[in-house]
Design brief:
It contains 4 helices and 14 strands. By secondary structure, the chain is mainly beta. About 25% of the residues are buried.
């Protein structure tokens, strides 16, 4: 963003009472705005020796960005960029004798996604179903996890917008592929048909990504919420067969 015309920064997105993005001069439009994390408190002594109010073992440890020895909204900062460094695609159309193939692939590299559903499904708040292995991954005195905070009835310290929600959104997707076979001309002359082509195809056949949400190819109706995944329904995989005939 080059200029806001002298205006104040614009906050966007939203999850309950929290904003998720910020737009200001000198930074990307709608960059992810939240707290930085520094692992998980592993003991009460570690929590007591830090200045994060109400912190307990198993809670996310937030970074004191401005150095005032307290964790508050003043420590919210740039935690991710929804815009890819590279967007790419590949289209191939080829044939050999009576066979033909066409395929289309697309993807992005270098973009982040804020996975809001991660906090809904992995915090034990009870609003949604949880992953079946959540309790196995969650921090506990016998499982000192550094990735998944503890699950308990009062989890408010962890229910904040932070880089714990931000994931690599890079992906490669096979959008469509179609293979066809055109019956020999001699056969068509006997049937009094000019051309018959039999084909099979697939759409959204596979996606290669490290993103843990439903679908890395998410859209947005506003640049202020680009890359914020509030649980968009994923694109369906489908298979089709067909016959093209010319008489």
């Amino acid at each position: 963003m080059i200029s806001l015309g002298g205006g104040e920064p614009i906050l966007g997105g939203g999850w309950i009472n929290y904003t998720t993005t910020k737009t200001e001069e000198g930074k990307p439009i709608g960059y992810f705005f939240g707290l930085k994390t520094d692992g998980i408190f592993q003991s009460q002594a570690e929590a007591d020796n830090y200045f994060q109010e109400g912190a307990r073992p198993g809670d996310l440890k937030f970074v004191d960005v401005n150095g005032d020895q307290k964790i508050d909204n003043q420590d919210r900062t740039h935690i991710g960029d929804p815009f890819p460094k590279i967007s790419y695609g590949l289209n191939i159309n080829s044939s050999y004798k009576n066979f033909d193939i066409s395929l289309s692939m697309q993807g992005t590299w270098g973009n982040d996604i804020m996975n809001i559903k991660k906090i809904d499904m992995n915090s034990g708040v009870g609003w949604y179903n949880a992953p079946k292995d959540l309790m196995e991954r969650a921090w506990s005195p016998t499982n000192p996890s550094h990735d998944q905070f503890a699950i308990n009835a009062t989890n408010t310290n962890n229910l904040q917008i932070s880089d714990w929600l931000v994931e690599d959104g890079s992906y490669l997707r096979m959008k469509n592929v179609q293979i066809g076979y055109t019956l020999p001309a001699a056969m068509m002359q006997k049937a009094k048909v000019q051309r018959i082509r039999i084909w099979a195809g697939a759409y959204n056949l596979f996606t290669i990504t490290n993103y843990t949400g439903l679908d890395p190819e998410i859209g947005s109706t506003s640049p202020l919420s680009s890359g914020v995944d509030n649980g968009y329904y994923p694109l369906a995989k489908s298979y089709m067969v067909g016959v093209n005939a010319t008489f």
